[in-house]
Amino acid sequence: MTKDNRLKIVFHGANACNFQEGFAKILGLDVEIRSLSDSLDGVLEYEDYSNADVIIGTKLDGQLPAPKALRLYHAPAAGTDAIDVNCLPANAQLCNCFGHEDAIAEYVMAALLRPHVPLELADQGLRKGQWSYWAGRPNALRTELGGQRLGLLGYGHIGKAVAKRAKAFGMSVNVANRSTVKDPLVDQCFGLNDLFAFAASSDVIVVSLPHTQQTEGIVNADFIDAMTPHAVLINVGRGPVVDEKALFDALKQKRIKGAVIDTWYQYPNAQRPECPPSQFDFSSLDNVLMTPHMSGWTAGMLSRRQVTIADNIRRMVKGQGLLNCVWPIPHHNFTHSSS
Amino acid sequence: MTKDNRLKIVFHGANACNFQEGFAKILGLDVEIRSLSDSLDGVLEYEDYSNADVIIGTKLDGQLPAPKALRLYHAPAAGTDAIDVNCLPANAQLCNCFGHEDAIAEYVMAALLRPHVPLELADQGLRKGQWSYWAGRPNALRTELGGQRLGLLGYGHIGKAVAKRAKAFGMSVNVANRSTVKDPLVDQCFGLNDLFAFAASSDVIVVSLPHTQQTEGIVNADFIDAMTPHAVLINVGRGPVVDEKALFDALKQKRIKGAVIDTWYQYPNAQRPECPPSQFDFSSLDNVLMTPHMSGWTAGMLSRRQVTIADNIRRMVKGQGLLNCVWPIPHHNFTHSSS
Predict the structure, then answer these.
(1) Which of A3, A156, B100, B267 is geometrically suited to a Cys-Cys bond with B296, CB 3.0 to 4.6 A?
(2) Helix, strand and coil percent figures for chain A, each rounded to 5
(3) How far is B100 from chain A (nearest CA, A)?
């Protein structure tokens, strides 16, 4: 094989380039690999992009050159909303990645345990000789997570990973999902036409839905009003699934106990590297834990996704069917075993 | 039944008195229940103690009046080291309680997740518009708990409860125990003659051993030196199981990554309500999380123990064998199903 005939793989943009280090070794094929900037302004970047056999990237639109030789566009993420499939050449496939669910489940469990196990306050006290949480003191009794009812809005990779851990703590697990869920981890399943009963059924609601026309604002003021006043809302799906104003108002008016929000309504960009995550001043509230869309971003997630992408490229080379295919919409979807 | 013939139950001391509220209802028998101070200085307290059929308490020694009518001394805790069985009348039995293991397992899992999910720092940053942990940033990659190796020193109620949760996170579980453990939750079991290999085998060591002649100082300087430098030690057993000076020196010299210590070497008393937990200045260290012996103290633990104690009193009344019997040492030990 001469150099010119080698498979051309490009990592496009800063996000995708995180997945390049060590990728050649995992792939184990004689290929050409390039890292390209988001705006393709480096010398030859435009040409490298146009001629790529495989693009690993998060954004495809009409502003970018047409990738005319493309056979596989691989998102290094689950969400592919910024990838316009109309810009893919005929016969090119779009695949995505999971592998973030274990990371997100760890984030969710840490957030769930936090109000029950006040480690920071206890540490700050004992360093000053104060034994406020000492066993034997009646007003020091902690609560337990184990007896609580977990409500999972969405039961995909993330919901399942959270359910598995929550069950080991003894929590009961309720699910609201488009299709009925039959899973020994799930105690009660609600349809999407029964969302208020679902909202009322749980002490903690974890939202892991993607952002689609159907899910936008599905957690609205009425949903939040249906929750019990002592309940906590956790959003690790996408910001707009939870109505921005309804969430802010409910927290400000303390209609629910609190929220843990990782996915937001406004994100920084090059022009504005520091920005608030919402048009409303969530930082003025003391009943919200605010994190910057971090829940899935771990070294373990990165290496699991590299394995998925490398596996799909080897399958393509061998002429085998691809896994995690998003476009063309497959009849049966086969997902990668590590995802 | 006249009033004088009713069963006389006393809760003795501030710790035991935590378990009285709501107890009569759980028990459901027509009995006489009294709460007595630790030093029995109230009017008639001395007499109530001496005539009790059942004492629920944590301390029995020769300084206290002989409970000559006693049939059952029930500790509302697992540890019975402060109860001198030589002070029990013939035919009286000593029983203990568990029900703390779920609470302690929640504490341990929260402590395990803490370094991997920096919720507090992320929240403090985002409130100022800083997105330091934002997904997509290479230097923001978190680590995961799931890939780590857990080492359980002791595999009783607490060890099992921690193992169950840790497994759901994908951790591998190593155990060091007096007797060989055969449990699908356990990947590798070490004998107590193989402690250094055990110490080297894990990324986190959780000590849940009781304090006995055999366990005192079992985690000594040599054990800590056998741990990997990135390992973390968690003690939820009893302070003296871990050698006080060896632990302090190892942390000060950063020979291990850190420690989470809940059980200590010095405790407050009435004369000294605020006191440091050790003769060494642990509060000068930044690689230890210090908590005031709080891990098992939850409302759930309290109500599970009330159920155990009430169940044993009903068994005694019916002439049935008691559960969780500590003295006389039973041939077979039956433990309460809720424990």
Answers:
(1) B100
(2) 30, 15, 50
(3) 11
Contacts of B143 in chain A (CB under 8 A): 298-300
CA angle B184–B190–B196, rounded 5-degree value:
145
A14 neighbors B136 (Cβ within 8 angstroms): yes
Residue A95: helix, strand or coil by DSSP? strand
**φ, ψ (nearest 5 deg) of residue A292:** -90, 60
Nearest Cα residue in chain A from B14: A136
Query: Hey, are the CB atoms on B136 and A18 less than 8 Å from each other?
Result: yes
CB-nearest to A283 from B114, B127, B275 is B127
Which residue is closest to A19 within chain B, CA to CA?
A: B138
| Residue B315, token pair as written in the block | 């068994």
* Contact between chains at B122 and A296 (C-beta distance less than 8 A): no
Question: pLDDT tens-digit profile of B141-200?
Answer: 999 999 999 999 999 999 999 999 999 999 999 999 989 999 999 999 999 899 999 999
Q: Other C-beta atoms within 10 Å of B305: how many? A: 26
Task: Single out the residue of A190, A191, A241, A250 nearest to residue A219, CA to CA.
Answer: A241
Partner-chain contact A290 B123, CB within 8 Å: yes
CA distance A122 to A130: 8
H or E element, residue A251: helix A244-252
User: Are residues B132 and A292, on separate chains, in Cβ contact within 8 Å?
Assistant: yes
pLDDT tens profile A3-46: 568 999 999 999 999 999 999 999 999 999 999 999 999 889 99
- Chain B CA closest to residue A117: B107
pTM of the model: 0.93
Q: Which two tokens stand for residue B257?
A: 């990554």
Dihedral angle over CA of B231, B236, B238, B242, nearest 10:
0
Per-residue pLDDT tens digits for B112-147 = 999 999 999 999 999 999 999 999 887 899 999 999
What secondary structure does DSSP assign to A173-198, as a single string? EEEE-SSPP--TT-SEEE-GGGHHHH
Spell out where chain B has E strands.
Answer: 8-12, 32-36, 54-57, 72-74, 93-95, 149-153, 172-176, 188-190, 204-207, 232-235, 258-261, 288-290, 325-327
> Residue A232 and residue A257: Cα distance in Å, rounded?
6
Strands B188-190 and B204-207: unpaired
Q: Which residue has the tokens 């495809």?
A: A60
Other CB atoms within a 10 A radius of the CB of residue A110 amount to: 22
Alpha carbon distances (Å) from B334 to A294, B95, B122, B326: 47, 11, 48, 10
Residue in A264, A323, A29, A232 with CA at minimum distance from that of residue B123: A264
| Contacts of residue B251, Cβ cutoff 8 Å, sequence gap at least 6 | B258, B259, B282, B285, B287, B288
Centre a 10 Å sphere on the Cβ of residue B225 and count the other Cβ atoms it contains.
14
- B110 closest CB neighbour out of A117, A123, A290: A117
Of B113, B135, B292, the CB nearest to A294: B135
Rounded to whole angstroms, how far apart are CA atoms B175 and B201?
A: 10
